[in-house]
């Protein structure tokens, strides 16, 4: 029966649109709050806590990595017990508490003597208790934001009816606008809040972040009556583990090629898999978990199946779907290593450049505004120009695939690191080597950093938006949040790998009177060589990624609208 639009349906559509906008605005406010802390954290560590550049960059990388690592915890609780709505609400509350704690501890203990924390006036020493309270607060923020992030994107996608073609199209656009909201939220924190914090007014910046996070939570709760809610489908880790254990126990069991000896709770499901060719033949070892032995056949009759010995085909296919994503996921980690430099070494590099126009001082962290503007511009350019142009020239029904876009993102990331390395090379040429406070010690203007920020922003549109879509679309329904968690965990590991690389490079490059590539005084180092190293490593990663992407076959889940191409598989889960 054709869909008939009525006054009630139009009213319903308006309400649905409002609550989807609420989720997008919620993401923007939460991001403003998060980056109000994160974007200048490296400067807080050097100016307020007295850490050197390498230690501060490492600590920021570890903290940011932990934020995204907590996304796994959020995804687990969401899929297993709480559901996406409750998980988002609880972790946002933790996020607010962490920001309030940081604001109080900074105002009461850390910003002493009064007025310290600017580039001209660093703070004094602090007690172990004060430093411990600071780290407790920041990691509480990491827990709250990390647990919330993978679920809000999936929860937003849940609000679209996949049986309605209009909403399916809107869902595709949602990920782009969701990422745009994320960047617009950080634009305010990188400019206005970044300016106050750079001038030593850290407490104002932190309290503004706490207020933004509280407003985001209230706004999210306001939409409660109109949200689409989905019940959690059980512990995904136990379902995953059951397949691994059952398949290992039956590693010697012979399987029938037709798959007739595989178990499914609904017999129609298994016939759909096997007769229509939906069954994934990759990683066939795990099919053994669903093979019915004579002993288990009797248990099935008595309704006494042990899930650690016999799993359903659906359960096995869920595991295989996730495992197929891992090679692609591993290749995205190197991109996150490049991306994390924007919050650490880019800021330190900018601080050592000329940051003044007449008497106005430009906060180094505010340069990330060019990254955000680049994201906004390239989202528009991609959706309105490049994608339609690709469809027109190739005569295909849809534009670039997610994997193609992610590959383009890697290429642009290489160019960004090359640009950063060239800027650093010329910064050193115009730098004063001997200086007590080396901020602004080079006559090269900070605006020469614009190309590297713009390139990073362009690469995000292709890589991170592509990742959000790819991992969400290629994950089974019961593991959607884990699909989004793969995206955030890639960022997490990227930060840890970045920290490891900095440590290794400093140990190798620091010998005798050589200060190393990333010393406290950047004018005595070779940060340019580190950037060129990242470009080379990303190039190697791109080669591996192309091989993995070429061998990957897309899965089209039943009930989802999409275009089936020759290299796609269909799967009913």
TrEMBL record:
Membrane topology listed for this record: Multi-pass membrane protein
GO molecular function, one term: transmembrane transporter activity
Subcellular location: Membrane
Main subcellular localisation: membrane
Highest taxon, organism lineage: Eukaryota
Coiled coil spans: none
Pfam families in UniProt: PTR2 (PF00854)
Sorted UniProt keywords: Membrane, Transmembrane, Transmembrane helix
Residues spanning the membrane: 29-48, 60-77, 89-110, 174-196, 202-223, 325-347, 367-386, 407-426, 486-510, 530-548
Gene Ontology CC terms: membrane
Family stated for the protein in its record: Belongs to the major facilitator superfamily. Proton-dependent oligopeptide transporter (POT/PTR) (TC 2.A.17) family.
UniProt-recorded name of the protein: Protein nrt1/ ptr family 7.3
Gene transcribed to yield this protein: NPF7.3_4
